[in-house]
Amino acid sequence: MTVFVVLLTVGAGVAALGGAFPMTQAVQVYLLVLVAVGAALVVERTLSKFGRVERAPRRRRRPRRRRRRGAPKRELPHFFQRVERRLELASEHAGQFEQLRRQLREIAVHRLAGRGVRLESDEARHLLGEEPWLLLERPTKADRFAPGPDRDQLRGLLESLERV
């Protein structure tokens, strides 16, 4: 930038001395160039305190890589981790399953209503399957610390809700 201003100043001086324009205009051009040089020096000194400004690198899409066998599994998002943890707790404690059962019943009622079926009907029992329907219909044991349904039963219940 300084080189540009110096060349501009020298060029304007040569043009004024060479008679490219009248002397009154040469003084005006000379003063204008002096102001430009001063402004350029102020800007350069101010910007030099911040160092060189570099352009941020562009983000490129990375091609998806297939996971190799034996490679570590990627972490699930937090939402899915919480859901997995709730399912684990539901299989360990009947009290936890009872809380989850209420939410699963609401999901089942909503999905069955889309087909015009009530949860209490025999058609719902047929659509969901016997075991998942019984898990949704009957409350768990009175002992909250008793084990809940095992993981296969919970998986079957979730799969039957997805099918509906």
Structural Rg: 39 Å
- The level of helicity is 55-70%
The ordered string of helix (H) and strand (E) elements is: HHHHHHH
Outline type:
rod-shaped
Q: Span between N and C termini?
A: 70 Å
The count of DSSP E runs of length 2 or more, i.e. the number of strands, is 0
Secondary structural class: mainly alpha
Low-pLDDT segments, ≥5 res: none
**Count of helices?**
7
Q: Sheet with the most strands?
A: none
Rounded mean pLDDT is 77
| Percentage beta strand | under 5%
Q: Tell me the number of structural domains.
A: 2
Question: What are the SSEs and their pairings?
Answer:
Elements: H1 2-17, H2 23-48, H3 78-92, H4 94-113, H5 122-128, H6 130-137, H7 151-163
Helix pairs in contact: 1-2, 3-4, 5-6, 6-7
Labels describing this entry:
2 domains; 164 residues; mainly alpha; 7 helices
Tell me about this structure.
It is a single chain. Helix 5 crosses helix 6. The protein folds into two domains: 47 residues; 81 residues, no CATH class. It contains seven helices and no strands. The two termini are 70 Å apart. 64% of the residues lie in helices and 0% in strands. With 164 residues, the protein is mostly helical.
Provide a quick synopsis of the model:
By secondary structure, the protein is mainly alpha-helical.
